[in-house]
Structure formats: structure tokens, C-alpha cells
Amino acid sequence: MTLLIIEDEPSLVTLLSYNLKTAGFEVETATDGAEGYHKALENTYDCLLVDLMLPSMNGMTIVKKLREAGKKTPLIILTAKDNELDKVLALELGADDYITKPFSTRELEARIKAVIRRSESSKEEVKEDEKKEQRLVRGDLVLEEAKHQILKDGDVLELTKTQFKILSYFMRNNGLIISREQLIQGLGMEELTGGTRSIDVHIGNLREKIEIDPKHPERLKTVRGFGYRFESGTS
């Protein structure tokens, strides 16, 4: 794990670097606020240790600017100021933890590992949420956005590009009545050869692939005078 220490007290920088390297971390340092900010912005670290009182750019500003720039690197504030208002402000700006000098290397090491664990856990939750968003289940049909495919009972359906677009649209609008015109506009398929009538042909072909009895569809139903409705039985 790689750390960046932004601290202007030479003796503390030397001590922290030595002890954290001994503990197995890779350590980089910056003794100037602006220098540290640019290093944190341009490079990838597992954790940042930032002093509050720094030349050229203070720790609060570093936290604020990094978070505004979209940098989510775990960040711990190091300071001699045991002031509750400073702690609250630092955390509100986006710091992950706050440790008051003097502190032991063992405590700092534990804090570093804790914020990194929380960050990794948060990333995994985001990935799981993204996977859920990209995987849409409708009964025995599963739409996998990332792979650009639809499965039925675990098997990949052989669909044309247009069929995939149409079935995906219906799966996302489960239970709603969709007119032919809405379908064409919703999919941006105004140039579709044959217009609304060709939709009927595609629907017929889709039924052959997803219905038990295509002549008596249970999923992709015709709503006379309106259009079609997809019903999976599971929302």
C-alpha cells in the first residue's frame, strides 16, 4: 500500500516515513501544501496523511480541492490542534479521519488500515450496485446490459440488433402498454424500414423465441387498438 505524507515538520516526516516503511507501506512525502496537493491529484495512493498547518496551501484547502476534483482517496488529517470545530469541518469537507498529535505509530497504522478497508468496502458496494443496475431480471428472462445479451432460462437468446433493442425496451417497461410509435421513438429507430408495420414483424419473431406458444403469447401481448404490453410476472 502506498501512502503520501503531506507534512512540513522534517523530524516528523522522517519518523513517520521510517516507521510506516517498517510496517510495510510504500511512502512518498511532500513538505509543501501545494506540492502535496498536486501529487495527490496526479498520482494514485491508497491513503493520504495531511497536516492542517502547511505552507502555500493548508490541509483544509487540500481536502476541499481534492474532493471537488473527484479524488476519493482515503485521507487522514494530522494536526496538533485538538479543536472540535476543526475536526467537524475537516470531516464535512471530506476527510475520512482525524488524528491529534502526538500519536503512536501503531495507532496511526491502525487508522490507516481502517480507512482503507472502509474505502474498499464502499467500492465493492458501488460495483455490486452497478452490476444490479446492469442486470435486469424479468421472470426467466435476464437482460445483461454490459454483455449486450438476453438470457432465457440461463441460455443466451440469438437476437438481431433490432430484436435486442425491442425486447430490452419492453423488459425495462414491464407491464406498460407501449404503442408502435412510442417504441420507435423510444429506441430512436425512426429510420426503421417499414415503419410501425415492421414492428409487428419483429414482435412476431421475438415471440417465436420467448413464448411457449407464440400464437397465444403470455409475455408479449397485443393490446388491441393501443400496441403491446410485456408481462413477466416479476417486476
UniProtKB/TrEMBL annotation:
<feature type="modified residue" description="4-aspartylphosphate">
    <location>
        <position position="51"/>
    </location>
</feature>
<dbReference type="Pfam" id="PF00072">
    <property type="entry name" value="Response_reg"/>
</dbReference>
<keyword id="KW-0597">Phosphoprotein</keyword>
<feature type="DNA-binding region" description="OmpR/PhoB-type">
    <location>
        <begin position="133"/>
        <end position="232"/>
    </location>
</feature>
<keyword id="KW-0804">Transcription</keyword>
<dbReference type="InterPro" id="IPR039420">
    <property type="entry name" value="WalR-like"/>
</dbReference>
<dbReference type="InterPro" id="IPR001789">
    <property type="entry name" value="Sig_transdc_resp-reg_receiver"/>
</dbReference>
<dbReference type="InterPro" id="IPR011006">
    <property type="entry name" value="CheY-like_superfamily"/>
</dbReference>
<keyword id="KW-0238">DNA-binding</keyword>
<keyword id="KW-0805">Transcription regulation</keyword>
<dbReference type="InterPro" id="IPR001867">
    <property type="entry name" value="OmpR/PhoB-type_DNA-bd"/>
</dbReference>
<feature type="domain" description="Response regulatory">
    <location>
        <begin position="2"/>
        <end position="116"/>
    </location>
</feature>
<protein>
    <submittedName>
        <fullName>Response regulator transcription factor</fullName>
    </submittedName>
</protein>
<dbReference type="Pfam" id="PF00486">
    <property type="entry name" value="Trans_reg_C"/>
</dbReference>
<keyword id="KW-0902">Two-component regulatory system</keyword>
<dbReference type="InterPro" id="IPR036388">
    <property type="entry name" value="WH-like_DNA-bd_sf"/>
</dbReference>
<dbReference type="InterPro" id="IPR016032">
    <property type="entry name" value="Sig_transdc_resp-reg_C-effctor"/>
</dbReference>
<feature type="domain" description="OmpR/PhoB-type">
    <location>
        <begin position="133"/>
        <end position="232"/>
    </location>
</feature>
